[in-house]
Specification:
This protein has helices at about 1-10, 20-30, 50-55, 60-80, 140, 155-165, 170-185, 190, 215-290, 295-335, 355-370, and strands at about 35-40, 85-90, 100-110, 110-120, 125-135, 195-200, 200-205, 340-345, 345-350. It is α/β, with parallel strands linked by helices. The chain has a five-stranded mixed sheet with strand order 2-1-3-4-5.
Length: about 375
């Protein structure tokens, strides 16, 4: 019994204890200003060996959709804390912003979510580097009050809390200034090259252009247009997440039940196999002893051990059934979230892959805007 308990304990994933939104909003008041955040689409964490997809209970299209959905969930959580300025989801780290969040999906099966998260500021300082793990429980789905709440909301709040706490120790004015100077340097390196330099892998200010410097004013105007573009792109990310939300909730609850039963069956199989082997070994040892020849105790031990081994096989088969359930649910959902083509100001953009291309094209447009004689805000159509 002790062995079974230990095996079960070792396989558990603790539930995250984190601040409420009210507490996060209170903590946000301690920040001197609201910095902008770029949440990059998460790495889907798909194994390189495609033959392992089914074995690991992974469906590629579902996981790729989760890489965007989880990024949107993080964005929404950061917005709710009221601690940040503009929070955008993008496909690239090449956007100059105050804070950049990158992540990778380590595990996602409806019951457990594990994310590797790294957060850096524009100076190059690492604010957060951590693996976040959360396990949800059956009572969450049974509580009608949780109808519109994500079961992994505590994980997202924990990420937000760590970022806020890290920023309390930083000079936010310097971070914002470095962002502006790096953006300007990217547009006109010959003019702004001496404004910043690298020291110990960190960007530091050398001089700040005058507030009436025409070249710096122009770069700031272009920076505003860049923000407008990213805000426009958010509509498509949010729409994508909302359209898949209802179907994803069905998958998530079904996958939760199958994952939980699979995990419990595997734990029971492992415990029974080990304990059964020990009892059989003990029975064999007793039977070979000269003063304990096939006693009733040894026969009972052997019978119990054999029974536990049979139970391990049965539970292993049960685990396989539930693994197949996860695969089938994921496969059925796979077709509903195929890449969508969206239109933005007359341009058709495919969310799978080509969004990154559009972001790349936008970088070229920014330089064109900067080099144009007029730096006034106006509508631009990306072709």
């Amino acid at each position: 019994m002790l062995l079974v308990f230990l095996i079960g304990a070792c396989s558990s994933t603790p539930t995250i204890q984190t601040s409420t939104y009210e507490q996060l909003q209170s903590d946000a008041t301690q920040l001197s200003k609201k910095l902008n955040v770029n949440v990059i689409e998460l790495n889907d964490g798909l194994p390189k060996d495609v033959t392992n997809f089914n074995q690991d209970g992974i469906w590629p299209e579902l996981r790729r959709a989760e890489s965007r959905k989880f990024a949107v969930n993080i964005k929404n959580t950061l917005d709710k804390t009221d601690a940040f300025g503009n929070v955008s989801v993008t496909s690239s780290p090449n956007f100059y912003t105050d804070i950049t969040l990158k992540g990778k999906i380590i595990k996602s099966n409806g019951e457990d979510l594990h994310l590797d998260i790294t957060v850096t500021d524009s100076t190059g300082h690492q604010l957060v580097k951590k693996t976040y793990r959360h396990r949800t429980y059956e009572y969450f789905f049974e509580n009608i009050r949780n109808k519109d709440i994500d079961p992994f909301d505590p994980l997202y709040r924990s990420i937000a809390s760590d970022i806020i706490n890290a920023l309390k120790l930083k000079d936010l004015d310097v971070i914002e200034s470095i962002t502006n100077l790096r953006f300007a340097n990217n547009l006109n390196a010959s003019y702004f090259n001496d404004s910043i330099e690298m020291k110990n892998d960190r960007y530091v200010e050398k001089f700040i252009p005058a507030s009436n410097d025409p070249m710096f004013i122009r770069s700031q105007n272009v920076q505003l247009k860049d923000m407008m573009f990213r805000n426009e792109m958010q509509n498509h990310y949010i729409s994508f997440a909302e359209k898949m939300d209802d179907s994803y909730k069905v998958w998530q609850e079904a996958a939760f039940k199958a994952s939980k039963q699979k995990r419990e069956a595997e734990a029971a199989a492992a415990a029974q196999a080990v304990l059964g082997a020990l009892l059989v070994a003990a029975a064999a040892s007793s039977a070979s002893s000269s003063d304990y020849d096939y006693s009733t105790s040894s026969i009972v031990a052997a019978s119990v051990g054999a029974g536990l081994l049979v139970g391990a096989v049965v539970n292993s088969q049960e685990a396989k059934v539930h693994e197949n359930t996860i695969n089938e649910v994921s496969k059925s959902f796979d077709g509903e979230i195929a890449p969508k083509v969206v239109e933005m100001e007359g341009l058709q953009v495919k969310l799978e892959g080509s969004i990154d291309e559009q972001f790349t094209k936008w970088q070229n447009v920014l330089r064109t805007i900067y080099e144009s004689e007029s730096s006034q805000t106006k509508e631009f159509e990306i072709l």
